[in-house]
């Protein structure tokens, strides 16, 4: 399996499922007469980030990880989304960005050094393989799963198949 095949399809699967989750969340708000801001600002616990930020961070991990692995310029995206529609647009743009990478760009990425920020003033360097398995994927899946957890906790009728994007 190529390094492209081990990364890009995984990011795309879950980014697509997050789009589906947001569509169900928006429909849930309409059906239950819930203001969208209530759900968009929901958290699993007061010291955790809200739903909106979970989506933004998942998008960042997908796009920025692909850029770092391929030695491409790392995109910067301001976190300005405040509505379901804006979040769905961000997901769509991220999906398009991740789809723009070609398999050849990932050749040797597993052994290539990847330097990335860890906090506001520190950075870390790992091989591409270590970066994906120890940092990029765990963080990406954490924020995607937290999105699912927030929505399910707030009554949106979703399950594992929705998270996997196969419902």
What brief labels describe this structure?
167 residues; 6 helices; single chain; 6% strand; 2 strands; mainly alpha; globular; two-stranded antiparallel ribbon
What does this protein structure show overall?
The protein is mainly alpha-helical. 61% of the residues lie in helices and 6% in strands. The chain has 6 helices and 2 strands. Strands 1-2 form a two-stranded antiparallel ribbon. Helix 1 packs antiparallel against helix 3 (51-70) and helix 1 (3-32) runs antiparallel to helix 4. The model has no long low-confidence stretch (mean pLDDT 97).
In short:
The chain is built from six helices and two strands. It has helices spanning 3-32, 36-40, 51-70, 84-99, 128-153, 160-164, and strands at 113-117, 123-127.
Oligomer: single chain
Tally of DSSP β-strands = 2
Low-pLDDT runs: none
The value of Rg in angstroms is: 16 Å
- Helix/strand/pairing category: mainly alpha
Number of helices: 6
Helix content: 55-70%
The overall pLDDT average reads 97
Per DSSP, what share of the residues sits in E-state strands of 2 or more residues?
A: 5-15%
* Global morphology: globular
- How would you spell out the order of helices and strands? HHHHEEHH
Report the sheet with the most strands, covering strand number, pairing sense and barrel closure.
2 strands, antiparallel
Side-by-side strand order of the widest sheet: 1-2
End-to-end separation: 26 Å
